[in-house]
Amino acid sequence: MRNIPLAGAAAALTVLAAQGRATARPGAPCQVPPLDPVALEAAVAGPPDSEVTGAILKVTGPAGNWQGVSGAGDLAANAPPALAGRFRIGAVTRLFTAAVVLRLAARGLVVLDEPVQRYLPGVLPGAYPEITVRRLLDHTSGLPDPGAPGDGDAAWFVAHRLDSWTMRELVANAVRGPMAAGPGTVQRENPLGYWLAGMLIEQVTGHAYTIEATRRILRPLRLAATVAPGRHDPDLPVPHATAHLAVREDGRTVLHDVTRQSPWRAADGGLISNAPDLTRFVMALFRGRVVPPPHLDEMFRVPDVPDVPMGGGPRFGLGLMRITGANGVVAWGHTGSLPGYATGLLATRDLSRVVVYALNSPSADSAEHATGIIAATFGG
């Protein structure tokens, strides 16, 4: 299987991470530059264009707050995006999934350094080595890259955007081949680990992943705009901006509305949220209200292994992605991308600055927009 072309938020983060690799310890204060409203306004300006049709940006911190939108939330009506509009958060979902697993670990229901085969017998081939739960969450499992269902182009996605698969089906399809690397030897971003983590949650609790995410995180934190949809629910609750995907047809580019799409990525990328809720979530998470210490510290622990294929040092803890700017500021969080969407949730460890952005991207070329937003927020 080949990957469906997705928006370039993750690539943007990689570019910035490569510019500087300070290794501040998790609890060290990060000296962010003063808030620069002019730079933020310039970073979010521009849409609608061929790369991004609409943008939402929310920056929060003790030094001040800033929020803004640009472009269109609805191309037909030419109305701006709503600041509190919902969007699909893609791989930002991993923060929620990792938090649920760590809450279970804090209760003694899951042991991070036990093999996942103990909890999910028969799911992985017998020839595979033991792979710990920790290695699923920090992308050092060595499992094969599952790719994405279908032939990988935008036209295929438009035609099949309502198709759905279970996490078990996705895992079974991915593990037909050999391991990509030995467990714990390299770090390679892989959604397969989070599908297995979602299955682990279901096995240990006896409930669907969507139920556990809602019961353990969304409801206690009163994240009213955040939804864990069932895999057969393609709808995006209002208010929301429309998402489009560009497809070449008869020599011209046609924008197809892909706002309604299957949330089949589930524990790896199925959640829906908005900027205020994501801000509230990361603040609660970093303050220890979601995952108790010392398990929270585990989220910020990045393994000392090579990062493949990006090169350089590793970037992922348990659910968290680390980015180091050229100015030495270290931010933690995640980016996400789905057809039509590019999102990001990043914060310094001390919460001196938090940013949430959401781009409606009809192409795979939104990296420049995301890079500009991240640089304007954290400097460098």
Automatic annotation (TrEMBL):
Protein name in the entry: Class A beta-lactamase-related serine hydrolase
Keywords: Hydrolase, Signal
UniProt-listed Gene3D superfamilies: DD-peptidase/beta-lactamase superfamily
Domain Beta-lactamase-related: 64-372
InterPro entries: AmpC-like, Beta-lactam-related, Beta-lactam/transpept-like
SUPFAM superfamilies noted in UniProt: beta-lactamase/transpeptidase-like
Source organism per UniProt: Actinomadura harenae
GO terms assigned for molecular function: hydrolase activity
Residues of the signal peptide: 1-24
